[in-house]
């Protein structure tokens, strides 16, 4: 996932790009598209919205809002292990 800018709208977005080694697999491409459709079909504060699905130079990507905050990985690197309440909340969300 990459931070990017929607040049036409002038807003920050996140781009989730299928890895190059998977982009050659039709099965992986279809799974990626199913993921995008599933996320687009859910309206929840716990699921990021899908703004667009497209392809560039043979690489499929999903455009989503860029969210503020840190990743779970960054949090674990900063403060591991998590206390039980925080871990359960993250797992639930």
Explain what this protein looks like in three dimensions.
This protein has 93 residues and is of the alpha+beta class. It has helices at 20-23, 26-40, 72-78, 84-92, and strands at residues 2-6, 11-17, 52-56, 59-65. It has a four-stranded antiparallel β-sheet with strand order 1-2-4-3, with helices on one face. Strand 1 (2-6) and strand 2 form a beta hairpin. The radius of gyration is 15 Å and the shape is globular. The protein starts with a strand and ends with a helix.
**What percentage of the residues does DSSP assign to strands (E)?**
25-35%
Low-pLDDT segments: none
| Secondary-structure-derived class | alpha+beta
Strand order of the largest sheet: 1-2-4-3
Helix content bin: 25-40%
Could you give the order of the helices and strands? EEHHEEHH
Q: Give the biggest beta sheet.
A: 4 strands, antiparallel
Shape: globular
What number is the mean pLDDT? Answer: 91
Taking all Cα atoms into account, the compactness measure Rg is 15 Å
* Total count of helical runs of at least 4 residues: 4
CA-CA gap between termini: 19 Å
Number of strands: 4
